[in-house]
């Protein structure tokens, strides 16, 4: 890391982005996962993941009114919430989780090509 | 929206005990269908999530290769269809003759337009296909070491469309592109967007074997070949039709156009190649022709000072290897030619003058020299201007010009004398209205000519003579100007060159002090005061140009002899051991003459005074013959003739000669001209005006120079040998040349003779073992 760049503000950035996810202010994407609907922001998702970059692009995005509707049927709401939280905050906590959850997270992060997360979970798991 | 929910139901089949193949087929069918929909621009009905998951599952279940090959097949199929349905129908009418059928290349332009659409559709579709096959790219393509799907799409486009085996698309494409470029070269307006699209397409496609772009492998060479041919023909046409300036403008325009073309729609890598072609065909091949174009080539440009055209030629020709060399040598030859002409006018003038050299037409003599220098300076100015305005002060050109000047200046054997005379003319009093700054700048320029002189020692000799006259006759414009000039010479040649000149100034200063003391001495002394004002300048013989061995004889009038004696006593009393020799040829006198009309004060040379005083003893009308004057005065013949000429044949005729004429001949009779009138009271009789030497004088100077060179050469040899003790013949010669060349170029035969003379006088000896080696004898 460059000595002239301070990283001490990353924590508040992460906190603020988590708030953004919780408050869903100015959201423009509704992600339907099982029975849950997650509200999110396309710019953040697209910036954070090549999968969403394509999925939410003009070519592929399905719109209902002003919002993009995206359905992810093969992932559980719990797992998807973890992923969303990771995408917004850049943090993840696996300590409290059941191994099956962790395994599901591993599979999902592979499908969505979240390489960092996949590597992290794999290392934690094995 | 409900249709999008369907996949949810279909997600289950994997759990059924269906065979994996059936499941794959099912999934693949849907994916292939989706790709077809994408090709049909129907993607809005498709679900990214579902298609992606579909491909993901196939790869996850090790069906990556099947998927990959399937995709390849679908895309190929589609492109084949595109070729048949869109590209082939757009072929311009009957290939080769298309430019005749469509004079504006409209058919070709349309073809490019279709191709542009096809290409854009393809890339758009490939981006979407890449989106849904992202997992295949990341996981399968990497491990299987196959191209990513987008690149696969490019390869398929290349093989199915651009290089189709089934249809002559490639031929048409290349032909249309070259035709469009040709049309543009012939000033048609073409749609660059379409051309650029095709070019960009070719640039994006890669040739499998060369790993280079298809642009480079298929298009570029053909483009360069046709361009070469095009400009070969154009070059021949242009040299035939246009003069040099127009030709160069056309070439400039072409170069510019090609550069623009590359920038607008070709690859930057083509830029140097096409530039080389234009330079080769339009510049290199016609260099000489353009330079030598009658009435418009390089020489006429120089003659008419066409700086813009010259500048254009310099820039243009600088692009090719031989360009500047050809220009340089042509200009240098021209300088030589002009220089030769200047030299010739001078020689024709001096030979014409040679006939009446004794006529005392001194003004003409100096004028020839001044005019020669002025013409050379003008020529120098002209080429300095060319250098400055057209040649970007190119050093190589400067060197070559300098060589040309050096060449013709040294072709004129009188150039050292002329340059010295020119300086003399400028440093003399009464400078024809020039300011000191102007004179200084003229002299600065003259120094540049001085640099070109090979025989600097000859120049020095003349300079000393001319300076001596200026100083002794009090004709120098100012001490500052003189010292300024000597300063300039010192910078060029070092102090050795100028110490003697500075010594001359010292003598002048000391003499003026001495004269003050002499006056005091006379005031205090009891001696009889001389009946005239005597002013003596004491010159150190080694500094001044004088010949002690042939000291000028002259019988001075008794009054003067007496005065000289008084001074001699005074001077030798102060400086014992010195020897004074009177140089009556270098003096002047102010005398008063009574004529019928009025009295005049005459400023004359010492010799003229001697001559005139002889008439004091004569009755009116009594004449003296040439022989009488010669016998009585004992003035050397050449000087006597010249001085008589000044008195009897020039502007102020103080004497009247019988028979009349410009020449002084034995037997001539001279009378005092009592009827002489002049508007001014004070009259200066010109004699010692500087002039070009006569042949006899030149020979004498030449001999003196040769003599001096002998001494300098010997001195150099001794200096070198004293330092090295022993030295081989050739090395010694080389070293001597090196030391002397700033003053003159000694020839080896001269050096060899001097070595032999030094051996004779036992300064050197030949080594016993090797006769080509010399030893220094201390």
Automatic annotation (TrEMBL), chain B:
One of the GO biological process terms: regulation of primary metabolic process
Every Cullin family profile domain range: 414-648
Domain of life: Eukaryota
PROSITE patterns the record matches: CULLIN_1 (PS01256), CULLIN_2 (PS50069)
Subcellular location: Nucleus
Metabolic or biological pathway, per its Swiss-Prot or TrEMBL entry: Protein modification; protein ubiquitination
UniProt keywords, alphabetically: Isopeptide bond, Nucleus, Ubl conjugation
Positions of region (Disordered): 1-25
SUPFAM superfamilies referenced in this protein's UniProt entry, alphabetically: Cullin homology domain, Cullin repeat-like, Winged helix' DNA-binding domain
A GO cellular-component term linked to this record: nucleus
Biased composition annotated in UniProt, kind: Basic residues: 1-15
UniProt GO MF annotations: ubiquitin protein ligase binding
Pfam families: Cullin, Cullin_AB, Cullin_Nedd8
Family: Belongs to the cullin family.
Name the record gives this protein: Cullin CUL3
Originating species: Rhizophagus irregularis (strain DAOM 197198w) (Glomus intraradices)
